[in-house]
Amino acid sequence: MANLRIQDLPATERPRERLAAQGPDALSNAEHIAIILRSGLKGRSVIEVAQQLLAKFGTLENLARASLDELQQIPGIGRDKAIGLTSAFTLARRMARELHQDTPLLDTPERVANLLREDNRLYEVENFQIVLLNTRRRLIRVEHISQGTLDTILVHPREVFKLAIAAGAAAVILVHNHPSGDPTPSEADIKVTRDLIRAGQLLKIDVLDHVIIGRKTPERGQDYLSLREMGFFYS
């Protein structure tokens, strides 16, 4: 199929027609990408270009993280097609976030990780967020506080609690990602957690947990850690 154009395929083998007849689950990742790319590749097969994208980036996650410049390194992918791919992946992340908004009760680290996993897995540096909650531990909103480097982040209590007070939050949950994939807290993570707990106590705003999001591995079946569950919170 490498050098065959979509229009040269029998109608029953074209990705659009197959999706309409058999449903989206019948298509491969390359075929779905081909539908997004559509045509206009100056004689190149859209399927071939889709396969090249997957071969270069390896996984859909890596492809979703690719910048516009990185996408345009693939022959046939210009600025408009790179923008189209980026928009498609952005919509997918937003849809995942909407699905979790049906159950905005955030009373466990797992629920917090489920809410923020899709956004955090794409960050290439550490990003610190706070989850603002009402008295019933239900979501008010998520606020992004700061961005750091590959392995450290700066957080000031003033920024955290200014937003919590403005939102009328009764409690907050701290969240950040580890781009390395290992969610084990650093000494800096533990220190900033304890600093924010003390500041929250003065302001009567509970800091309920600090959830660090990483990635699963065969040895590590969970892609997040809770500092409360690890015993770093006061009793």
Describe this structure in words.
- It contains 9 helices and 5 strands.
- By secondary structure, the chain is α+β, with helices and mostly antiparallel strands.
- The protein has a 5-stranded mixed β-sheet with strand order 2-1-3-4-5, sandwiched between helices.
- The longest helix has 22 residues.
Features:
235 residues; 43% helix; 9 helices; Cytidine Deaminase, domain 2; alpha+beta; 2 domains; 5-stranded mixed beta sheet
Topology:
Layout: H1 15-22, H2 29-37, H3 46-57, H4 60-65, H5 68-71, H6 79-100, H7 109-120, E1 127-133, E2 139-147, H8 157-167, E3 171-177, H9 187-203, E4 206-213, E5 224-226
Parallel strand pairs: 3-4
Antiparallel strand pairs: 1-2, 1-3, 4-5
Helix pairs in contact: 2-3, 6-7
pLDDT averaged residue by residue: 88
The count of domains is 2
Biggest beta sheet summary:
5 strands, mixed
CATH level 4 superfamily of the largest domain: Cytidine Deaminase, domain 2
The name CATH uses for the topology of the largest domain is: Cytidine Deaminase, domain 2
Instruction: Report strand order across the widest sheet.
Output: 2-1-3-4-5
Tell me the number of helical segments per DSSP (H or I, 4 or more residues long).
9
CATH architectural category of the largest domain: 3-Layer(aba) Sandwich
Total count of strands: 5
Question: In percent, how helical is the residue content?
Answer: 40-55%
| Uncertain regions spanning at least 5 consecutive residues | none
* Structural class category: alpha+beta
Radius of gyration: 22 Å
Q: Report the order of strands and helices.
A: HHHHHHHEEHEHEE
DSSP strand (E) fraction?
5-15%
**Distance between the ends:** 63 Å
